[in-house]
Fold this protein.
Amino acid sequence: MEVRVGIGYDIHKLESGKKLIIGGVEIPSEKGFLAHSDGDIFFHALTDALLGAIGYADIGELFPDSNPEYKNKPSEYFLFYAKKLVDDKKYKISNIDGVIIIEKPKLLPYRRQIIQNTARILGISEDRIFIKAKTNEKLDSIGKQEAASCYVVVLLTKTED
């Protein structure tokens, strides 16, 4: 059986008055992501992990922030595109493991909803996805609530032809 591993990373500044969208879920917060699209760090990192696992490209190549077509685009669009490429190459998602690093708000109350939404978009079962939320213990730009970041690892397996 052929397996592939991909890793993705994303970071965005936080700014007052912006929406905080993680995993396609709008989370009540005083600050949200400053970004060209909706800034969804989880979906951006997951998209990059999927693209990297199949050796295709990265999110910045496919959806550059210099292109006005992607202005305010929901990150679900990028993720769905990456999933189609994975399917076209005859891989399936075995599992997704993500770490979201944000000082506030606490994400535990939203984790189930983020997992459900991700599973729906990717057409996989929820038990193939896990997300951990961490703080940065008040250190650096993340700890000072100036930014948030995310790491995602995916495992793909080749499907039978």
Notes: The longest strand covers residues 3-16.
